[in-house]
């Protein structure tokens, strides 16, 4: 049996432990929801205040040049590139995940418009906004969205037929924490003649990603989860260089023009991924995102040439292994079932549990104790989920022990049955 002392010993040996000092974490809070919203970097309030008071307040419009506002999307994109296996100049930070998905899926469909292929394939359990965007685009462009289970992608009877134009997947599933083998899935899609669109919302800053090595086509991702960019932080978009001169940008705003300040009446797209920009960029939000990116990149010093993600991944797997083991040791007989894969190669940086009764209320009872996770509703095909995210930048092994201790108490006392924990909030 693992003990509290064992967990404290692991913390004492943890080379990444000092990275927690980069963050403001409220006293008494065990934060297991960085996969929904990362915590506040200590550098962010002062940096945002500087942008507001000095760069905006004093520099005014001059700051587009003097404070280098103009190239923020590209500069931050280069920082994201270090975390997702892309090269400098291949990523831009801009807009929301949903808007960027619209752009890249539109581009992929445009490339396939004369191929005779009319299917867009995605997982039934994909994040809803991805499916909603795909539904809309398929309706507008004359394609059909086909929803599948993950097991249908490869092997005998694969759904990757010559009818598939685009395979659109989230690399780490938001409900289960299950992770695709991006390289293998992309190769299978390409062998069938399909293009790939990857959503990295639960991957960037959480698990190693190798976009170029995987030969992927398009990818987008979120800035406010594991990248700690703040609520509603700008997202990012990437396109493989082989498509750089071909893809269409459906939202052809002036910031994606090859020369915005020529003010010509007709659109001329910027080269490469720069054309994915649209309107004037949100400078204050981008400043906050840069602070978040820097907290992740700080892990590079612990892993040299292998980059930040190798060091973070090793600790993430150790944290999630420990959580799974403690739940199974200490909550046996309480009706919890593990949904997240045990295999390291198939697991993201979260652990999801299901329970036939009370999943929402259990999460609310934990939140009241300061253990913040979240709940995702199921349906006739998918169970209700208690979801716990593990961000190795600011979580330790004793945090895992204490979180499970609270879970044990909530379950054994029946505390979750109290009325206040069974009233649904707008955000779950």
TrEMBL record:
Modified residues (N6-(pyridoxal phosphate)lysine): 225
Pfam family, one: KYNU_C
Residue ranges constituting the Aminotransferase class V domain according to the UniProt record: 78-298
Required cofactor names: pyridoxal 5'-phosphate
The protein's annotated pathway: Cofactor biosynthesis; NAD(+) biosynthesis; quinolinate from L-kynurenine: step 2/3; Amino-acid degradation; L-kynurenine degradation; L-alanine and anthranilate from L-kynurenine: step 1/1
Binding residues annotated for pyridoxal 5'-phosphate, in chain numbering: 97-98, 127-130, 170, 199, 202, 224, 254, 280
EC numbers for this chain: 3.7.1.3
Cited Gene3D superfamilies: Aspartate Aminotransferase, domain 1, Type I PLP-dependent aspartate aminotransferase-like (Major domain)
Superkingdom of source: Bacteria
Any single Gene Ontology cellular-component annotation: cytoplasm
SUPFAM superfamilies, per the entry: PLP-dependent transferases
UniProtKB keywords: Hydrolase, Pyridine nucleotide biosynthesis, Pyridoxal phosphate
GO biological process: anthranilate metabolic process; L-kynurenine catabolic process; L-tryptophan catabolic process to kynurenine; NAD+ biosynthetic process; quinolinate biosynthetic process
GO terms of molecular function: kynureninase activity; pyridoxal phosphate binding
Catalytic reaction list: L-kynurenine + H2O = anthranilate + L-alanine + H(+); 3-hydroxy-L-kynurenine + H2O = 3-hydroxyanthranilate + L-alanine + H(+)
Coiled coil, from the record: none
Assembly behavior: Homodimer.
Family (UniProt): Belongs to the kynureninase family.
Function text: Catalyzes the cleavage of L-kynurenine (L-Kyn) and L-3-hydroxykynurenine (L-3OHKyn) into anthranilic acid (AA) and 3-hydroxyanthranilic acid (3-OHAA), respectively.
Official protein name in the record: Kynureninase
Source species of the chain: Variovorax beijingensis
